[in-house]
Write a structure and sequence with these properties.
Elements (H helix, E strand, L loop, with lengths): L3 H14 L5 H4 L1 H14 L4 H31 L1
Helix pairs in contact: 3-4
Amino acid sequence: MATPFESSNQETAVRRQKRGPPYKFLLPLVYAPVLPLIRLSLRHKPVLRDRLFAAVLVGAFVHGSYLVSDLYDAESK
C-alpha cells in the first residue's frame, strides 16, 4: 500500500508532464490555411499544385487517424 507521501509524488510527476500546449492538437490550425495557400500560390504549376495539395491532405488525414486511434487506445486501457 502506498503511503500518502508516495502518492503525492506520483501526482506531482503527472502534473509536471502535462505542462505546455498540446501541439499535436494544434496542428490542424496549420493545415487549414496551408491548403488554400497551396491552391492559390501554385496556380500556374498545376501538376506540382495537385501533388503537393494531395500530399498535405493525406498527411492531415494520417495525423487525424493517429489522434483518433490514440484516443481510442487511451479509453480502452
